[in-house]
Each structure stands twice: as structure tokens, then as C-alpha cells.
Predict the structure.
Amino acid sequence: MRMNNVKKLWREGKPAIGAWLSIPHCFSAEGMAHTGVDWLCVDMQHGCIDYSDVVPMLTAISTTNVTPFVRVPWNEPAMIMKVLDAGAYGVIVPMVSNREEAERAVAACRYPPTGMRSNGPNRAMYYGGPDYQKHADREMACIVMIETPEGIEKMEEIISTPGLDGAYIGPTDLALALGLPPVMDNDEPLHIATVNRMLELCKKHNVIAGMHTNSSKFTQRYIDQGFQMVMLVSDRGAMTSFVKAEVARLTGWTPATPSAGQGTGGY
Ligand code: 3PY
Ligand code: MG
């Protein structure tokens, strides 16, 4: 079976840097797969992406060695199993708040007798290989997001869930859960303290710590701290921030349409 290159990096104690896909197209996914990142995440939660977009996007990513993840819209076993069957090598499950919810996510990623994943790896077998079912439990990464008030309170019971590969922070939901404005690259002392507490618990329980950022500055900070799954930039954020910056450089011209919205945010 094809190895999960990101899990290999983690086993070697190394970080894996990723990018986020919010645009529902195989062409942008393929382009992002050629940028040098270790992993890409197709975002079904906040990206403009449905299941029928996910399949060609995973196919495009599989033209490279980049490891494909999908963030599912919610902690629903049916969708977790469907994206794994389509060839995702890991799932990121949002807003997991307690041990029971974390166990549900893990079980959806593992075949019986360990879990409850149903058999039917249709595209996954072309991508992974004919012995897919034999090794899938070892290669699939199950990552849960900690970003709700209950999840913050019950961080340790989530992180210590048997079979879990990692816990990933959504910084803006985490900020909201802490009563702060939803800022991505966040320097609020309470935010920093909560992030640090999660990192320590991940180290204690031997699971990888993941973090979402919006800049190389914050990506570097979290890698240096010991986070092993760090998200650098989204397709939408990269595209719009680049064009916005280039527009701002022009002189002798006034834009008829002022730029709207956030240029860089990568949810
Ligand atoms: C958050 O910031 O809450 C996220 O989930 C990032 O995608
Ligand atoms: Mg979130």
C-alpha cells in the first residue's frame, strides 16, 4: 500500500507543512500540489466544496506525492467514510468537544474490529493499492479539531483518545470560544496560553499537535514550538492577497472597484 508520507514525517519527529483548498476545482488543487507543501486539505466545512468536487480534487493531488486530507463538514461517520473511500489519507474533523465525539471520529476511520468503517474503498484502492484494506488503519490519519468551549475544558480527555493521530486548533473558533475576536494569527495572551496547553498535552499523550495559520511568520513560530501539522496558506487567501498587493503597488490609477473583504484569511 502507498505510504502516508505525512505520518512518516510524524514518526520521524518532523513537522509537516500544509495548505488549504477552498476553491472547488481540480486545476487549482493540482497547482497547489506543485508548490512544495507536504499536505493539502480539501475543506468541505468552510470551503465552497461538495463531495462531487472532492473526488476530482483528490485525483488532481494524486498526480504528486502530496498527502491528501479532507476537512469534513461535521463529525458524521457517513461523510468521513465517503472521503476516505475517495482516497483521502486523513480527515480533519471540526468542533470535537469531548471523548465520546473523538471516539466516534476515530471509529469512522478504522475498519472492524478496531472501528466501524464500512468496506468499500472504491477510488482509495486505485490510489492506495490492492492491499488497501490490510494497511488502511495504519496509514489513515484521524485528526480532531479543538476549538469549542467544551473542547477547551475537556482537552485532555479528547487528546488521550485511543487511536487518535492528532489534535488540530482552529484559531478563530478557539478565539471565539475564549471570548476574543476571531483573529487567525493570534497574539492574545489567553489564546497563546490555551494553544500552549494543548501542545503540552499532545506531547504528554504522544499525539501530534496541529495548528492553522495565515502566514509564514506564525507557521515558523508553531513549527519551532513543536507543532507537527501546520497550515501555511489557503488557495483563496494566496490568490487574493497577491492580487490585492499588486493592485496596491500601481500608481497613477484609481481602482473603480475598491477591494472588498479580507485578502489573506484562509479558513
Ligand atoms: C478556525 O479558525 O476556527 C478554523 O477552523 C480554521 O479553518
Ligand atoms: Mg474552526
Notes: Residues 147, 170-173, 212, 267 surround 3-hydroxypyruvic acid (ligand 1) (CB under 6 Å). The chain has a mean pLDDT of 96. The chain has 13 helices and eight strands. The first strand starts at residue 16 and ends at 21.
